[in-house]
Structures are given as C-alpha cells and as structure tokens.
Predict the 3D structure of the following.
Amino acid sequence: MGLTGRLVNDIKTYQSERGQGEVASAIQCYMKEHPEMSEEEAVEYIYSVMENALADLKWEFMKAKDVPDKCRRLVFDNARLMQLFYMEGDGFTLSHETEIKEHVKRILFEPVV
C-alpha cells in the first residue's frame, strides 16, 4: 500500500515538485540511474511498477484468508484511496483545485442506492 501511494504521488507531482527544488522522486531517481531514458520513459516505467504493485496487492487481498477481512479491506481501501486522491493530479496539496472535496462529500453524505 505504501509503495503504490508513494509512486502515484511521484507520478502526479514530480514536475511541480521539481520546480520547487525537490529532486527526490521515483522519476528523478530512475532517470539518474538510467541516463539514457527520457522523462516520458521513466514515467512509463514507474507507472508499470505501480501497476504491478497494485496487482500484487489485489492478489494478496484475495488469497490472504488467514488475515481478518476487515484488516485486508482496510489496507486495500487505503491503496484505492491514494489512487483516487491522485487521479487528477495532486489531490492533497491542490485539493482546492481538484474534485477531491466532491468525492469526499459524496462518500460521506450521499446514500448508496
């Protein structure tokens, strides 16, 4: 769960953070280790790592029957929440500019039909 959250954050925020002097993102680290790669290729690679980590998390969620369902659900739902927060960009820092407030309102206050 932590890996998927970290990577989705880096994918969606590395450009704005780089402009603020931040250099510690998965994208920047990958490009430093692989100077022959373009920025676009680095983003694609990190995205594939995130997708594989999500697939592993889903697999563990389905097979880990010795862990209580509520615990498995908590971990899985938190990973899904991170994906939601960063769906349109940086859902934490720029929440006033994104739809995250509307998502939270719907989740908390609108009945499920």
